[in-house]
Amino acid sequence: MIQRSFLLLVASALSSAHAFIPPQVSHHSAHVRLAPAATAAVAGADPTTIERILATATRAAKKAGELMIREAGAEIIKTKTNPKDLLTKVDGMCQDAIKAEVDAEFEGEQHAFLGEENVAPGPEASIAALKEAVDSSDYLWIVDPIDGTTNFCHAMPLSAVSIGVAYRGTLVAGCVYDPYADELFTATAGGGAFLNGKKVVVGPQASLCATLGEALVAGGAPPGLLALGPCMRGMVAMSPHVRSFRMLGSAAIMLAWVACGRLTAYFEPDLNAWDVAAGALLIQEAGGLMTHCNGTPYSLTTRSILGSNGRAHKEMVDILVAAEAAELDTEPRIG
C-alpha cells in the first residue's frame, strides 16, 4: 500500500517540481540589501564579525555555485553509505573553494569548519563530528558544498550551496545559494531573511483541512532505508489533508522555499547539520517555525526536522507522530 501511494506521490512531484511560485516579499523593507547583522540577538556574538561572516559566506557560496554550473552532470566518483548516497569530484572542489574564502577572511581567528566532505558517512560519524566541532571554537561554519548531489549528477537544476554559521552552538548567519536560478537566500539572527536582498516572509496558508487544504508540503526521499519508511508513511498520512506534496531532492532548497512562501512546510526524519543549518535560520527569521518532527525545539543536533510557516505546525506534528513518521525506524519498513 505504501509503495503504491509512494509512486503516486512521486508522479505528482515530478510533474510540477520546478513550477515557479513567486516568493512572499515583505513590503516593510523595500531597499535591496543582504540580511543585516544581528545586534544583540545572540549574547556575546559580535555584530561586526557577523557582518564579515555573512559577506564571506555569500562570496564563498557564489564561487562554489560557479563551479556547480560549470561541472553540472559530473561523474560519480563513489557512493557513501549505499548506492543512493553519491559523491562527485565537484563536491570536494566546492568545499575547498568555500574553505579558502573562510580561511582568507578569518586567518588567525577562532573559526572552526565542519564540511560534509570531511566527515565519514553515516549518522554516528556526523553526530560525533558536530559535537567535536561545536566544542572546538566559538564560531563554527557548517557547510554542505552541494546539497542535492543526486540532482546534480543527473544535471537537474535543483541543487544548492548551504552555509550556516553558529556562535557557541546557536545559529547566527546562513545562506543558501541556488546557482541555476541565481537566487541567494540570506539570514542573520534577529536580522530577518532575504532573497537577493529583498526581505521575505513565510507563506500565508492558514491551516490543514479535510477537503481543500491550502498547504503545499515537501518531503524527502532519503538514501537510508531506516529513514525512507517514515518519510513515506508521513506523506501518505498527510496527503488527505494538504493540497499537494513535492519531493525536490535538496533539503536546502526546500527549507529556503518554506522561508520565502513557495512551500508551506518540509519534513524529513534524518538529516545532518550541514543539510539544515542555513535553512533552519532562514525559516526562523522569515517568521516560520522549526522543530523536531515530534514538536520539540530545533537545535544543531536535531536530525528529524519539520520546518513550516507555523500556522498548521501542531497539526502536522500530530499527523507525523501518529503515522510513526517522526523518528527513524529501527529496522526497514517499506512494503
From TrEMBL:
PROSITE patterns: IMP_1, IMP_2
EC top class, as a word: hydrolase
Organism of provenance: Tribonema minus
Record's signal peptide: 1-19
Key words, A-Z: Hydrolase, Magnesium, Metal-binding, Signal
InterPro entries hit by this protein: IMPase, Inositol_monoP_metal-BS, Inositol_monophosphatase-like, Inositol_monophosphatase_CS
Protein name according to UniProt: Inositol-1-monophosphatase
Record family assignment: Belongs to the inositol monophosphatase superfamily.
E.C. number: 3.1.3.25
GO process terms (BP): inositol biosynthetic process; phosphatidylinositol phosphate biosynthetic process; signal transduction
Record pathway: Polyol metabolism; myo-inositol biosynthesis; myo-inositol from D-glucose 6-phosphate: step 2/2
Domain of life: Eukaryota
A single GO molecular function term of this UniProt record: metal ion binding
Substrates-to-products reaction catalysed: a myo-inositol phosphate + H2O = myo-inositol + phosphate
